[in-house]
Amino acid sequence: MTSTETQPAGPDAGSAPDAPVLEVTDLHVTFPAAGQGRDVHAVRGVSYQLRRGEILGIVGESGSGKSVSSLAAMGLLPEYAEVTGSVRLHGRELLGLDDRQLAKVRGRTISMVFQDPLSALTPVYTVGDQLAEAVRVHNPDLPKAQAAARAVELLRLVGIPNAEQRYRAFPHEFSGGMRQRVMIAMAMANDPDVIICDEPTTALDVTIQAQILEVLKTAQRETGAAIVMITHDLGVVAGFVDRVLVMYAGRPVELGTVDDVYYRTRMPYTMGLLGSVPRLDFQDKAPLVPIKGTPPSLSDLPPGCPFAPRCPLVREECTTGEPPLVRVGAETHQAACVRAAEIEANEWTAADIYPVPEIPEDAAAGTPREDREVVLEVDDLIKHHPLMKGAVFKRRVGTVYAVDGISFDIRERETLGLVGESGCGKSTTLMEILSLNAPQRGRVVVLGRESGRLGWRDRFAVRREVQVVFQDPMSSLDPRMPVFDIIAEPLRTHGHPREALRSRVHELLRLVGLEPAHATRYPAEFSGGQRQRIGIARALALEPRLLVLDEPVSALDVSIQAGVINLLDELKARLGLSYLFVAHDLSVIRHLADRVAVMYLGRIVEIGDVDAIYGAPAHPYTQALLSAIPIPDPEKERSRTHIVLEGDLPNPANPPSGCRFRTRCQKFRQLGDDERQRCLDEEPAVIPLAGAADHGAACHYAEERELL
Amino acid sequence: MFLARRLLNYVVLIFLASSFAYLLAATTLDPRSNYEQLDPRPSQESIEARLDELNLNDSTPLAERYVTWVGGVATGDFGLTIQGRSVNEEIARKAGVTLRLIVVGTVIGCTVGVAIGAYAAVRQYRSFDRVSTGAAFLVLAIPTVVIAVSLQVSAVAINQAAGVQIFQYGGEYTAGLDAGFWGTLGDRLQHMVLPTLTLAIAQFAAFSRYQRNMMLDVLGADFVRTAMAKGLTRRAALLKHALRTALIPTVTYFTFTFGILLAGTTFTEKIYGWNGMGAWVVDSIFTNDVHAVAAVSCFMAVCVMAASFLSDLLYAWLDPRVRVS
Ligand SMILES: Nc1ncnc2c1ncn2[C@@H]1O[C@H](COP(=O)(O)OP(=O)(O)O)[C@@H](O)[C@H]1O
Ligand code: SF4
Ligand code: SF4
Ligand SMILES: [Mg+2]
Fold first, then answer.
1. CA distance linking residue A671 with residue B143, whole number of Å
2. Which of A226, A243, A157, A237 is nearest to A202 (CA)?
3. Which domain of life is it from (chain A) (predicted)?
4. Contact present, A228 and A53 (Cβ < 8 Å)
5. Bridge partners (DSSP) listed for residue A388
6. Which residues, including other chains, have CB under 8 Å from residue B205's CB and lie 6 or more apart?
7. Spatial separation of the C-alpha atoms in residues B200 and B221, rounded to whole Å
8. CB–CB of B132/B120 below 8 Å?
9. Are A76 and B222 within 8 A, CB to CB?
10. Which residue from A4, A153, B73, B146 has the least number of CB within 10 angstroms?
11. Quick one: which H or E segment has residue A222?
12. What is the pLDDT of residues B56-88, one digit of tens each?
């Protein structure tokens, strides 16, 4: 169908020493339509070669066909999928083999690690048995005891403590990170030549992601396997892989070494993708590059370049035929764009070709924060959940210290980012603030009024001033209501004049970058990014002063996320809003926030000015967190050393004595016994650092350290 | 410890169920009328004496009769039938008949149902799935009685067509047959086929539907894909990982359907002329036989509890997570 320029594989390719281990040529996957729908062309001509020991990254937004193309190579697609092209493993064609023959290859020569470790293991068998099964399927003559011994050895290799005992544990007794280690152990069990990792860290927290990436490196060292690393995270790719394949709408659009693709990008989509990522390592807050529109439907593709409807460089000729992947610049660098040569000649970058929105300067930027009004004050807030057991007669068996004494304030026109790994108490904090009820201990003061001491009239007034935007745009919007009613609802409740309703709703839609004409549509007709905009419009309807945002962009693809982040930035400056922004993505926080509070196990461990903290974090946890996040810059990434934390988050029902972080603290391990005693006995409070204007850390041995 | 408590619970439940059945039967049935309608009518004194002897006299307070009955049951004596025979002996004769029917019918019905349901899920929307789904729905829509009668009718037709008695459809065995051990066994089997099939078909229908749905839930599960990714064939992955996991809820379902199965047993025994517990309870109601009704209720309760206990054991065996936590 389309020609792709790949080195022709000779007939004896399988035997040559530097022959590719895995060779995918012109792979197409179509899911035939069920009923009257249209066929989904999920993969349309993917070709790549993987050499011995090489790591190839495949990046692209969700739905671009990354998973389907790798599942096709493994023969794991549902039977109804139509697969054409060629997948050769050591020169042997895999497509068309029957299940029995493929099963002999799967797990032995080519193996796979999946995205969601929580559901990837069979719940009724022990992890050890499942691992031993992987060994025995391919070595049926191996005695059971030896297979079990090998399983224990594998568990140890991937860093499971007490491997012998943990062999007998069931998957539900393992954390997500631990299960992913087991998956990796399984993938390396038979010394494969290729390991395909499909978003192996996407479902995990950053510190766990760093651990898993380390384990993958171990796995590669042990087995010498070539790795296909599928991810949407451009940071993970930068430091981990040798070459990158960028996919869009089921096709590769750029292929080359990491450096070529990152520093000499020749395809507008890749440029946009790289420009849309908020950067952990950038202090200046230039607007992100948003890519307008959304990826095309794979069942109804426009003719020509699939990126044309979103491309800033689109021309007449782009729509005539789909541009093939051709060489640009270096011998190994290929891009699928008719204007690639032009881009190369002019050395255009994302900033040159993408129109970036002007974000107005914040009027309050000059006023020092002490002189601004306090919008929200949280003082020693506590929220403990009783831990219950038993089905009928519940009895209390403990306490979950979800939020355990945190304090911060937010000033007018200020954004506070609240970050931390899942389960650290971020969402509980938000819920406590939004409930407006008296907290179990401490105080929450919203706009000068203390929660729990409000009459209903005050509550009503406060509710108006504090609005919330949730993570999942779909579940927070009533699917049976047209957008007009969704946005008008708070206005009606708060007695907005009827005749002005329509104009206000239209104004709000324009404000968030949507067409007023869309007011009659239903949420299902919008994309994720647009739904999030609807959620924001509704939150803004009553002109609040404080917006509480709970992971508002974490469900969105980067190119869409960039637009929403820019919008939030702009709204804040234009409307003079304050944000309490909860996120687990530290890059987003750096981009959006003025101040940041880092939480660990229900406590704030470090708080202060964003640039101060990102520039020189003082708490060991913040240091580990920042160090764990990969940066989408290959050279920087290669030169960084990551602090990899040990172990998982402790149980919040049973936090360690003294400093809660001590069980994982890298600094603690370097201390002498006397010094350690203090960490064991005394819980550190947030103390301002000497010489810093706005920077405090809760560590007895806090010490600023530059990391980025 | 856990099991002991379970068992104690069961005993209490069985006791309550039987007591309830006894009290209900003792208040609604009227054994006195049996004697009063005799022709010639026995004398009043002999009726009273007979009823007293059987502990069925309605002029004795209910509480007193109940205490006497419970006292008997506690020592393992279920009293006398209205004909004055020992209920225990009757139970000994009939329980085996019923148990044979239930056990064989359930085992065949469940196994076939689970296998067909699971396979139908794998072949979703293919012809096998369509046919088995259609068959299951058909069976579910028809009462057991009708199934039993239709089977009988078809058996007659087949026998006639073949010219030999392939199927037997009256009683448990041919009376007065003298054909040695193997002949008797064959004769019993011939008689067993149809009633057992009746029960099995109903079980199959319910279980194939349920198992199909449970199986569909896990077919696309990530862990099945993992099993294939490590080198199992699709078939092995489906059997060892998908079916194994999908069986767990079915075991619970078994407990729920067991009561319905017992009701089906009653009809089946009646229609095929088997002298089992089910047929007996129907007869006893007509003959105002209070103790027989109570005894059968107790038997049924024991069966239900045994089934539930069995499924608990199966559950714990299939799902090791309950053992751990
Ligand atoms: N089993 C399936 N049946 C029909 N469509 C599918 C199936 N699996 C994936 N698709 C479609 O194929 C496209 C590519 O999906 P995928 O490879 O999972 O994307 P990615 O991994 O890049 O996020 C998507 O549009 C998805 O909806
Ligand atoms: S081919 Fe045209 S539309 Fe496609 S990326 Fe290149 S310039 Fe843009
Ligand atoms: S107080 Fe001790 S254990 Fe806690 S973070 Fe500081 S050095 Fe680590
Ligand atoms: Mg995917």
1. 78
2. A237
3. Bacteria
4. no
5. A396
6. B113, B135, B136, B137, B138, B139, B140
7. 31
8. yes
9. no
10. B146
11. helix A206-223
12. 888 888 888 899 988 888 888 888 888 888 888
* Of B221, B234, B321, Cβ closest to residue A170: B321
CA nearest to A505, candidates A521, A492, A494, A516: A516
- Could you read off the pLDDT of A507-551 as tens digits, one per residue? 999 999 898 988 999 988 888 888 999 999 999 999 999 999 999
Q: Are A515 and A505 in contact (CB under 8 A)?
A: no
Q: What domains sit in chain A, N to C, each tagged with a CATH number?
A: 22-241 (3.40.50.300), 265-353 (no CATH), 364-593 (3.40.50.300), 594-600+607-708 (no CATH)
Are the Cβ atoms of B234 and A99 closer than 8 angstroms?
yes
Enumerate residues 6+ apart whose C-beta is below 8 A from A109.
A89, A90, A192, A193, A194
B244 interaction partners in chain A (CB closer than 8 Å):
122, 124
A600 lines ligand 3 (CB under 6 A): no
CA distances from B51 to A11, A668, B38, B94, B164 (A): 101, 89, 14, 25, 50
pLDDT digits (tens, 9 = 90+) for A117-160: 889 999 999 999 999 999 999 999 999 999 999 999 999 999 99
Residue with tokens 């058909």: B138
3-state secondary structure A157-199: HCCCCCHHHHCCCCHHHCCHHHHHHHHHHHHHCCCCCEEEEEC
**CA dist., res. A326 & res. A253, Å (int):** 9
Contacts of A316 (CB under 8 A, 6+ apart): none
Give the Cα separation of A646 and A649 in Å (integer): 9
| Tokens (6 digits) for A686 | 């947030």
How far from the centroid of its chain's Cα atoms is residue B123's Cα? Answer: 31
Determine the pLDDT at residue A457: 87
Residue A466 has pLDDT above 90, yes or no: yes
Q: Among candidates A216, A121, A135, A209, which has minimal Cα distance to A169? A: A121
Nearest to A469 by CA among A598, A369, A556: A556
DSSP secondary structure letters along B105-172: HHHHHHHHHHHHHHHHHHTTTSHHHHHHHHHHHHHHHS-HHHHHHHHHHHHHHHHHHHTS-----SSS
Structure tokens at A562: 């960039």
Both tokens of A332, joined, read 């190994």
Name residues 183-202 of chain A within 8 A of B (Cβ).
Answer: 183, 186-187, 189-190
- Beta strands A194-198; A110-113: pairing state: parallel
Q: Tell the burial category of A95 from Cβ atoms under 10 Å away from its Cβ (0-12, 13-18, 19+).
A: middle
Q: Do B320 and A170 make contact, defined as CB atoms within 8 angstroms?
A: yes
Candidates B124, B222, B226, B240: best to mutate against A (most CBs of A within 10 A) is B226
Around Cβ A581, how many Cβ atoms within 10 Å?
A: 25
**For position A349, what pLDDT does the model report?**
87
Task: Report the 10 Å Cβ neighbour count for B72.
Answer: 17
Angle at A48 between CA A43 and CA A50, to 5 degrees: 135
Residue range B134-158: mean pLDDT, rounded: 87
Q: Say whether the peptide bond before residue A20 is cis (omega within 30 degrees of 0).
A: no
**pTM confidence score:** 0.86
Q: What is the pLDDT of residues A215-268, one digit of tens each?
A: 999 999 988 999 999 999 999 999 899 999 999 999 999 999 999 999 999 999
In degrees, rounded to 5, the angle at the alpha carbon of residue A663 between the alpha carbons of residues A659 and A664 is: 105
> Which of B230, B233, B244, B245 is best to mutate for the A interface (most A CBs within 10 A)?
B230
Token digits for A524?
């299902």
Q: How confident is the model at residue A652 (pLDDT cuts 50, 70, 90)?
A: confident
Cβ within 8 Å, pair A106-B221: no
Rounded to whole angstroms, the Cα distance separating A321 from A310 reads 16
From CA A552, how far away is CA A532, in angstroms rounded? Answer: 7
